[in-house]
Amino acid sequence: MFDDEKLKNLKSSKEEWQKKTIDKAIKRFPERKEKFSTTSEIEVERLYTPENIGDLDYEKDLGYPGEYPYTRGVQPTMYRGRLWTMRQYAGFATAEESNKRYKYLLEQGQTGLSVAFDLPTQIGYDSDHPLSAGEVGKVGVAIDSLKDMEILFDGIPLDKVSTSMTINAPASVLLAMYIAVAEKQGVSQDKLRGTIQNDILKEYIARGTYIFPPEPSMRLITDVFEYCSKNVPKWNTISISGYHIREAGATAVQEIAFTLADGIAYVEAAIEAGLDVDDFAPRLSFFFNAHNDLLEEVAKFRAARRLWAKIMKERFNAKNEKSMRLKFHTQTAGSTLTAQQPDNNIIRVTIQTLAAVLGGTQSLHTNSKDEALALPTEDAVRIALRTQQIVAHESGVTETIDPLAGSYYIESLTNEMEKRAMEYIKKIDELGGTPKAIEKGYIQKEIQNSAYKYQMEIESNDRIVVGVNKFYIEEDHKKDILRVDPEVEKLQNEKLSKLKSERDSEKVQNILKELKKAANEDKNLMPYILSAVKEYATLGEICDVLRSVFGEYEQSVIL
Amino acid sequence: MDMPIRVLVAKPGLDGHDRGAKVIARSLRDAGMEVIYTGLRQTPEQIVAAAIQEDVDVVAMSILSGAHNHLFPKVVSLLKEEGADDLLIIGGGVIPEDDIPKLKEAGVEEIFTPGTSTKDVVNYIKEHVKR
């Protein structure tokens, strides 16, 4: 962006500034630390100047919004056209309770739904399974069959809202239930908009709700890609997630590196399964974390967009521009919230919201201030949503596209993060790709090391967490928190036995047999799963059939 | 020289959040203890079997899913049934303050909540281990 002559002059004037002004100043007032760095351990210089981005080629490296390499954003007008989707992740107890919360959120101006399922649902167990004891309805809503799903979306027109579902190992089953509910509402599947997370690799890496081993899991995922490209064209078939990788302790660089490496593995699997890259890649979406280091986060989002565009174009020869666009959902960082002085979390979430918006997110969930204590109360959720609304309507950052572009620091950091992420991706390629790198424990170990280092920095006071290792007060922890009634489990089990006595059992058994046969062969399983849920086969029954064919994943424990 | 303290770090239930458990495991190890980590999704029965088989002095459980009121006391009572009542049993995770007295009554001797320093956990174990 700058000619050599100017850069040369700049270099000498900067040296002069160093001698004349800085050296003297530092002698009198030493800086707070010897070394400054981002959370990804990128050293931060005292001052950034055109020198730091001398090689930057505006058209090649930044370009224009809505155009390759999408550094400045994936939509041509970004928030001038339409604000991001405000989408609060919610769900707890029964379908009835969660349905009420969704209606409340929509009334409060939320523009999309995001369903949280309880752990038994995420791991493919019905509520009456012995391993479900104590977990039913706790971290999300309990869904055992289509019946629960009908109640969950009762009175919510599925042709009007877009719905994101955080479901991975049994994603195809929940998607099938959603399609079936829509059909009952008279909404055909080609009109449905939303996302299933469907990202099993990060479950092995960081989140833990896997069921099947990698190979059949990848097959279920590519089955969804294929089925949706033909039947549910507006559906995002996967949300390749760095969120949980970051929550597990990864740095910002590791977050984008491991997430894009997962993305590469999915694209490779789908191509291997015989799909054309441009048939499925436009429906891939991503999910990132927004942390406190505001400028590093903004650079992270920009670097991820540029890197993914290059990977799709250069590595996979995508031709369709839509295949190169990295669209992403963001959630603010749960792990940065403190149980101490929980009101302070509102400010953390505000900074993180700004990071996501300045980074060009397509949708956003803001965490509630009380989430280090329990599930959020309704009041806390409203404040979290209001935080987004204030940034959207009052802060002014939405009025122009990618407003931090051209900042010497932001551009330099964007370059550096892309470079370091690419180094990780190369390393993973050398190990044989993500599934192999997981098997060897490489990715998990890298994340664990970062998590441990972060904790040690807090304990040595090298990293200050306000209210935790500095500025603490005595406080009464008995706060108003949301509790899930233990009766929920009983209620859910009663519903389940009623359902089993009412449905046509013979039909269910036959359909499950057909599913088993198809699983043993090489057929796309989506149509079979869809017929099974329509006959009210339960989630647990369907997953048990698949377990009997695919087996279960054994975690390699790495310390 | 004293034998090192042996600790079982366990993840009961279906919860997949293991960042805390792993950081704790590593810091106990760095403090000179012998640490066995169970991995995810352990039933109370599996945890008890591992505790007995590994002949540990301490069982440290971590739950962030809200299932602690069900699972922590179950591990304690199974351990008692097996006659392993000389163990120090502690827990941690996203656990509301109001639940702590009941958990302590059930036999979980200390509960560590978010923001706890690993040094505090190390010191607690050293002071309270029963041997």
UniProtKB/TrEMBL annotation, chain A:
Record SUPFAM superfamilies: Cobalamin (vitamin B12)-dependent enzymes
Domain Methylmalonyl-CoA mutase alpha/beta chain catalytic: 38-552
GO MF terms, alphabetically ordered: cobalamin binding; metal ion binding; methylmalonyl-CoA mutase activity
Enzyme Commission code(s) on record: 5.4.99.2
CC cofactor: adenosylcob(III)alamin
Family the entry assigns: Belongs to the methylmalonyl-CoA mutase family.
Protein's UniProt name: methylmalonyl-CoA mutase
Gene source species: Anaerosalibacter bizertensis
UniProtKB/TrEMBL annotation, chain B:
Taxonomic placement: Bacteria, Bacillati, Bacillota, Tissierellia, Tissierellales
PANTHER family noted in UniProt: COENZYME B12-DEPENDENT MUTASE, METHYLMALONYL-COA MUTASE, MITOCHONDRIAL-RELATED
Needed co-factor(s): adenosylcob(III)alamin
Residue ranges of every copy of the B12-binding domain listed in the record: 4-131
Name recorded for this polypeptide: Cobalamin B12-binding domain-containing protein
Any Pfam family hit: B12-binding
Molecular function, one GO term: isomerase activity
PROSITE patterns attached to this UniProt entry: B12_BINDING
Family annotation (CDD domains): MM_CoA_mut_B12_BD (cd02071)
InterPro entries: Acid_CoA_mut_C, Cobalamin-bd, Cobalamin-bd_sf
UniProt keyword terms in alphabetical order: Cobalamin, Cobalt, Isomerase, Metal-binding
